[in-house]
Specification:
The structure is a homodimer of 379-residue chains.
Chain A: E1 9-13, H1 17-26, E2 32-37, E3 50-53, H2 59-66, E4 71-74, H3 81-89, E5 93-94, H4 98-105, H5 107-116, E6 124-127, H6 130-134, E7 142-146, E8 156-159, E9 173-177, E10 181-191, E11 197-199, E12 203-208, E13 213-219, H7 225-242, E14 246-255, E15 260-266, H8 276-279, H9 284-292, E16 305-312, E17 319-320, E18 322-324, H10 326-330, E19 335-339, E20 344-345, E21 350-358, H11 361-374, E22 376-378
Parallel strand pairs in A: 1-2, 1-4, 2-3, 4-5
Antiparallel strand pairs in A: 6-9, 7-8, 7-9, 10-11, 10-12, 10-14, 12-13, 13-16, 14-15, 16-21, 17-20, 18-22, 19-21
Helix pairs in contact in A: 1-9, 2-3, 3-4
GO molecular function, one term (chains A, B): 5-(carboxyamino)imidazole ribonucleotide synthase activity
Pathway (chains A, B): Purine metabolism; IMP biosynthesis via de novo pathway; 5-amino-1-(5-phospho-D-ribosyl)imidazole-4-carboxylate from 5-amino-1-(5-phospho-D-ribosyl)imidazole (N5-CAIR route): step 1/2
Binding site for ATP (chains A, B): 107, 145, 176-179, 184, 263-264
Chain lengths: 379, 379
């Protein structure tokens, strides 16, 4: 890679909150940042050297954008991979690599990759037609997921019994045995081009079932050491099998029998790593930059108990965002507010997050509950 | 103050590294940031919502810029204060207040303020003409400082004996008894409009005598508790006497007899507080924002030993900056690089800083020395 501090042009596909936090960190390295996003009001629009409005799914748009940078990364997987492949051929560095984005875009290929590489995952079957679904051998209940373009709970359907089948997706999908899990857990792993691999400590998640979003995340996990170690080893194994360059978020279930099953991958900074900004020696954003710049990876040690609370648009409100309770929340020591610069709120939209740190885990949880009930985004 | 998250227009006079780090933090609060700076290549130029090129000393320029914002702050004291005064009269919030910037711009007024408020400081005399200098009663050696526009060691002259007098400044100046100090120390204090006052823990500085710049800063200090307590009390007393809104950096000497003498004030984020980004629960930049937004001040507790090393342009090089040794430095755990986005280096120009954290103070110092000899800015 050419000497880059000062003159490296970094392109990011997507200009949302992940890009925004990546820029906050990239500022420290004098990088020239260019952003492509379809929304002219995207959170990154004013924070980069160049902001281009355009479709992330369009070959020409992504290709033309990529030709203006030295290194291209993503903050969302739903991008035109053919363009990325062509850019790689023409010498643009694309991290994560296009083949990995292609694999991860398709939940079916992702599952097959797990199977081929002995990565523990729930039993599954790839479904190409409604007829195949009727003939499937996975017992009820199971989860049907669209192979492509699902996110944040969209494109996911729980098939409890036969009566649910008529509302099932008709598109190519994947069905997975329902996991009656104890906990959702996650590990973020990074790998640089030199092959150095490093994991962040395991985190535990709590979902808001109504919004189907992570709304509460605890770092580090207090699960038994063997579970932590096993989860980190699985994440490392995946990163090494993929030979990914960049960050990889590995979402997992811990089932009632203490078995870990990998759910999904995201090849980028992830909502489940936001607490690393204040909670760990290096943040996921710093680590992603180090990985894609092929620099030594940073120390991921936890500095403190850290809880991440998503700040979601309140149900029933849609329009220009108003934040209630900020002053009360800032009164609590060890509370960090991150707003994402989105002008409009709507129900369950991710408007920001708050990290709460405390040397006492119970106190951290108590503070997090206070933040959750105090900070509201209305209109 | 009007509900501001999302719609507060914050103006910053100056677009250098302090503005840059303030923006990195302000991003978390959805603030619209406008910058005024004379240099079209200033470090903030691409990171704000609006960047205006113009003189900070010109009444019309500052006034017109100020009229476009709700809240105006500074990252450099050398600004047109008459314009700020007028803006205050017209309802723009100016923090720190114009009267404080006016006081601090004039080292003579600053010293008189110390005297009137019983703030310990070296004996001094205000000098308005070369004749007055010859008749001064301060014994040799003493330091002559221009009353206005000195910075980073410029406008300062040591008068060792009579033979030095012919090279002394002719302009209005201040002479101060030479302090044979043991250590330079500093406290950053913040005050919000509600009158809440909070200090960061005392830090110790080491200067590069050749460059006359802080190049090494250790936080927290290991000086005796009484010294720490006294220094923090002095800083609080100054903030309260001034009724400042915002941050105030208080530079002090600890003399050989253990007595603290206040040297100078800076009413803004300061080089001696950069280590707070990683070393303390809240950073000086977060604290400045909380103070000027009249929000509860944050917890300033140290999380770790933190050392701040200035990254200065290497002597003998002038031109487009090239950074040597970054990879070696990033290999060391607990090292954080902050580059300031300046295209051109020159001898001793502040091009960035590095913070080093370690639970072991001696190890932190060792790492800092390694960083200092490894990371070089050449051309």
């Amino acid at each position: 890679m050419k000497a880059f501090y000062g003159d490296l042009k970094l392109g990011i596909l997507g200009g949302g909150q992940l890009g925004r936090m990546l820029i906050q960190q990239a500022i420290n390295y004098n990088v020239t940042v260019k952003i492509l996003d379809p929304d002219r009001e995207a959170p990154c629009r004013k924070l980069c050297d160049e902001f281009t409005v355009g479709s992330l799914g369009d070959y020409e748009t992504v290709y033309n954008f990529g030709k203006t940078v030295d290194l291209l990364t993503i903050e969302i997987e739903k991008v035109n991979v053919d363009a990325l492949e062509q850019l790689e051929k023409e010498g643009v560095l694309v991290y994560p690599q296009s083949r990995i984005i292609r694999l991860i875009q398709d939940k079916g290929l992702q599952k097959q990759f797990f199977k081929e590489n002995d990565i523990p995952t729930a039993d599954f079957q790839i479904i190409s037609s409604p007829r195949e679904l009727l003939q499937s051998t996975i017992p009820f209940p199971y989860i049907q997921k669209l192979r492509r373009d699902g996110y944040d709970g969209k494109g996911v359907y729980k098939v409890v019994d036969e009566s649910y089948l008529d509302k099932a997706f008709k598109e190519p999908s994947l069905i997975e045995q329902w996991v009656d899990f104890e906990k959702e857990i996650g590990v973020i792993v990074a790998r640089n081009e030199n092959g150095e691999v490093s994991t962040f400590p395991l985190v535990e998640m709590e979902f808001n079932p109504e919004a189907n979003l992570v709304e509460f995340l605890i770092s580090p996990s207090t699960l038994p050491f063997e579970v932590q170690q096993q989860a980190e080893q699985i994440a490392k194994k995946i990163a090494e099998s993929l030979k990914i360059v960049g960050l990889l978020a590995v979402e997992m279930f811990l089932d009632k029998n203490g078995k870990i099953l990998v759910n999904e991958l995201a090849p980028r900074p992830h909502n489940s790593g936001h607490q690393t900004i204040e909670g760990n020696v290096v943040s996921q954003f710093e680590q992603h930059l180090r990985a894609i710049f092929n620099q030594p990876l940073g120390d991921t040690t936890c500095l403190n108990n850290a809880i991440m609370v998503n700040v979601l648009g309140e149900a029933g409100y849609e329009g220009p965002a108003v934040y209630k309770g900020i002053e009360k929340v800032l009164k609590v020591p060890g509370v960090y507010i991150h707003l994402y610069g989105k002008a409009l709120t709507k129900p369950f939209r991710k408007m920001g997050h708050v990290t709460i740190v405390d040397a006492d885990r119970e106190k951290a949880i108590e503070k997090a509950r206070f933040v959750q009930k105090t900070l509201k985004v209305i209109s």
